[in-house]
Amino acid sequence: MIEQVVRLRVTVTVNAGQLEAFKSIAKDMVLGAEAEPGTLGYEWFASADGSSFTLLETYANAAAVEAHFTGPIVGELVPKLAAHVTINGLEFYGDPGPKVTEMAAGFGAVHFPYWAGMKR
User: What CATH class does 6-112 carry?
Assistant: First the structure.
């Protein structure tokens, strides 16, 4: 099997009065992701009214996703973030591996396995 990148899409709604706390933690998450080997992208996008955000994450492979999920961002910062938001969705594009699949099951994660594509 050819090793494929793995992408995640997380959507959240910020709880009333929690925007600044959310932004602070989200920025710390980006800084932490910059230091993770195998993390190719970690980008937050805001809705027009600033109440909802989408996080797009891209990893080199399933091993990089597992390192992220067992590291300080998910272990320390995600619980802090969760106190300020409602998590609306978690989607995996590609195979994140069995350990991450199990870890994410409690969040109602949806998986979209790789089907076809091209790389440059």
Answer: alpha beta
| Across 68-94, average pLDDT | 96
- Beta bridge mates, 42: 57
Cβ(57)–Cβ(39) under 8 Å? yes
Nearest one of 93, 6, 74, 92 to 41, comparing CA atoms: 6
Neighbours of 23 (CB within 10 A): 16
pLDDT in the model for residue 120: 67
pTM flag (> 0.90): yes
Rounded-to-integer distance, Cα 14 and Cα 21, Å:
10
Q: Which residue has the tokens 């920025």?
A: 27
Give the residue extent of every domain in the chain: 6-112
Which of residues 3 and 72 earns the better pLDDT score?
72
Distance, CA of 59 to chain centre: 10
Provide the β-strand partners of residue 89: 11
